[in-house]
Write a structure and sequence with these properties.
The protein has 248 residues and is an all-alpha fold. The chain has one domain. It has ten helices and no strands.
Length: 248
């Protein structure tokens, strides 16, 4: 690969880049935003795709955000590329806030704000703490799967329920902002292109006027040697006619 790395990146470097990109999160966010605004498609399709990606980022199903975003984008007629870029809303900086808020909202919806909610929350914390102390190598695949299933009711289920209202709200906000930015960006680009076309047309008109004002090229004068030989040629032609007449 041309201009590729001489040595492949180690897993530590890949993990560091995933947490903190080389260009910083701000520059990466600006890059993604410009790529989204330059996508082909209607403003609705681009905005709906971003909204689908933002909604998928609120779900606790890591590794499935792309598939969820594509499914939602298909339902609401969104752009798939915009949906994939919208999932960047979920990143190591926002996941703690997203997970905490979805768990709190889901716990409140499932059990209310009374003692039952506190009991469910405490049970969830106990399950997570218990899972963190487990030796995964000793459990094996089946044991790990059982532990993950055990986290469904106290942890994953509240996060999934809470992700629905929060994800829809964030998706609507993302849709409105992205649609407005897409319209503004395309109008500004159209104005720039129209101004450039007007300048090119004006330059072409000026060049045409300059060509019309130039003097026409004078006709090339005949060769003087040819002009001097014309009488001699005519005289010889007449002599030849006389010889021909006498011979008859």
């Amino acid at each position: 690969m041309l201009f590729g790395r001489r040595e492949p990146a180690s897993w530590r470097e890949k993990f560091r880049i995933a947490i903190w990109p080389r260009r910083s999160w701000l520059r990466s966010a600006k890059y993604v935003a410009k790529r989204v605004l330059r996508l082909t498609g209607s403003p609705h399709a681009v905005a709906a795709g971003v909204a689908a990606g933002v909604f998928a980022s609120f779900t606790p199903f890591l590794g499935l955000h792309f598939l969820l975003a594509f499914a939602v984008a298909y339902i609401i007629a969104g752009n798939f590329i915009a949906a994939a870029m919208g999932t960047f809303f979920g990143n190591p900086l926002t996941f703690p806030l997203i997970w905490g808020s979805t768990y709190s909202v889901g716990d409140f919806i499932l059990s209310g704000a009374g003692s039952q909610g506190s009991k469910l929350a405490g049970n969830g914390h106990m399950k997570v703490e218990e899972f963190s102390r487990v030796d995964l190598f000793e459990l094996g695949f089946s044991g790990i799967w059982d532990k993950i299933i055990g986290l469904w009711d106290p942890v994953v289920k509240p996060m999934t329920i809470g992700a629905i209202p929060l994800g829809i709200t964030a998706g609507i906000i993302a849709y409105v902002i992205t649609r407005w930015l897409a319209i503004v960006f395309r109008n500004a680009r159209k104005k720039r292109m129209d101004a450039k076309a007007a300048r090119l047309a004006e330059t072409a008109d000026q060049d045409e006027e300059t060509l019309q004002q130039e003097e026409p090229v004078q006709a090339e004068e005949p060769n003087q040697d040819v002009v001097d030989l014309q009488p001699k040629i005519e005289e010889k032609r007449k002599q030849q006619e006389k010889i021909d007449t006498a011979a008859e």
